[in-house]
């Protein structure tokens, strides 16, 4: 007689006890591992993460984590002040630069030329330099605006000894009615030395007869302004004159006449 096959005995699993607040207990997780316990206040626990690892638990009372703190720059008024200070300074500088400019629909206008006391300066030079110096008698519209005193090494020949000695000069600049700059130089230097002290690439190119006085005209290359020069002799000695600048020929003639017709200033000491 064939006996019936043995039946496998039934395995009894322990009954899961109810969880908090009467909720059913969690079922076993993967591979028979116990399921995670519920979190605070009976909320279900987070599900396991990758590969059965438990997921991170929420923060206190299930609330999300706090947001990152704001940068310190936005929390401190002093930091905000130092952040804005360079911008304020830049705005002030820009406003100052803009304030120096102005818009003129009719175009630019002539600015105020500086003034120079030619009479006082030439008198002081006559007292100090000890050679005949003249004060030009210019018509209205001419304005002296600059002046200087200088020397030229080996610029003159001493008459008794024929030795080369240091020469001196005085120069006054004028604004002519044509709005051009013209200067008059008076010196005890020789003609060639004086002209070369003004521009060393000039050469004689002709003459101008101005009321019986012969002026030698020197010219140069591009950018070199012409020079008119003459030598005036007198009881007190000789003076070499030179006129140069951006003025017209008429400006040169006016300054030449205004100078050559004057007597030298008297030295006061």
Provide keyphrases for this structure.
elongated, Phosphorylase Kinase, domain 1, 7 strands, 269 residues, 7-stranded antiparallel beta sheet, 20% helix, alpha+beta, 23% strand
Brief summary:
With 269 residues, the chain is α+β, with helices and mostly antiparallel strands. Helix content is 20%, strand content 23%. Strands 1-2-3-7-6-5-4 form a 7-stranded antiparallel β-sheet, sandwiched between helices.
Principal-axes shape call: elongated
| Proportion in helices | 10-25%
Give me the number of helical elements: 4
Number of strands: 7
CATH topology of the domain at 118-260: Phosphorylase Kinase, domain 1
Gyration radius (Cα, Å) is: 51 Å
- Report the structural category: alpha+beta
Low-confidence stretches: none
How widely separated are the two ends?
166 Å
CATH class category name of the domain at 118-260: Alpha Beta
Largest sheet: 7 strands, antiparallel
Topology pattern, helix = H, strand = E = HHEEEHEEEEH
Topology (elements, then pairings):
Elements lengths: L76 H23 L18 H12 L13 E15 L6 E12 L5 E7 L3 H8 L4 E8 L2 E7 L7 E6 L6 E7 L3 H12 L9
Antiparallel strand pairs: 1-2, 2-3, 3-7, 4-5, 5-6, 6-7
Detailed description of the structure:
The chain has four helices and seven strands, in the order ααβββαββββα. The relative contact order is 0.10. The protein has a seven-stranded antiparallel β-sheet, sandwiched between helices. β5 and β6 form a beta hairpin. The model has no long low-confidence stretch (mean pLDDT 79). By secondary structure, it is of the alpha+beta class.
């Amino acid at each position: 007689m064939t006996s019936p096959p043995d039946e496998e005995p039934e395995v009894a699993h322990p009954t899961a006890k109810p969880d908090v607040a009467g909720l059913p207990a969690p079922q076993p997780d993967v591979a028979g591992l116990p399921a995670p316990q519920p979190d605070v206040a009976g909320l279900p626990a987070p599900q396991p993460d990758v590969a059965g690892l438990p997921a991170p638990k929420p923060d206190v009372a299930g609330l999300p984590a706090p947001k990152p703190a704001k940068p310190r720059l936005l929390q401190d008024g002093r930091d905000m002040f130092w952040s804005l200070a360079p911008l304020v300074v830049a705005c002030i500088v820009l406003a100052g630069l803009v304030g120096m400019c102005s818009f003129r629909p009719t175009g630019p206008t002539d600015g105020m030329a500086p003034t120079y006391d030619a009479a006082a300066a030439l008198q002081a030079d006559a007292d100090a330099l000890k050679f005949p110096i003249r004060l030009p008698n210019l018509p209205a519209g001419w304005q002296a605006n600059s002046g200087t005193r200088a020397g030229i090494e080996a610029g003159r020949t001493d008459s008794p000894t024929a030795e080369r000695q240091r020469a001196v000069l005085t120069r006054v600049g004028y604004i002519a009615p044509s709005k051009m700059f013209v200067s008059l130089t008076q010196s005890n230097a020789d003609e060639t030395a004086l002209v070369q002290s003004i521009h060393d690439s000039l050469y004689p190119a002709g003459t101008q007869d101005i009321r019986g006085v012969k002026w030698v005209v020197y010219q140069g290359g591009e950018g070199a302004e012409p020079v008119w020069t003459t030598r005036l002799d007198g009881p007190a000695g000789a003076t070499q004159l030179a006129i140069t600048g951006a003025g017209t020929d008429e400006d040169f003639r006016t300054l030449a006449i205004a100078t050559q017709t004057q007597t030298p200033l008297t030295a006061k000491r």
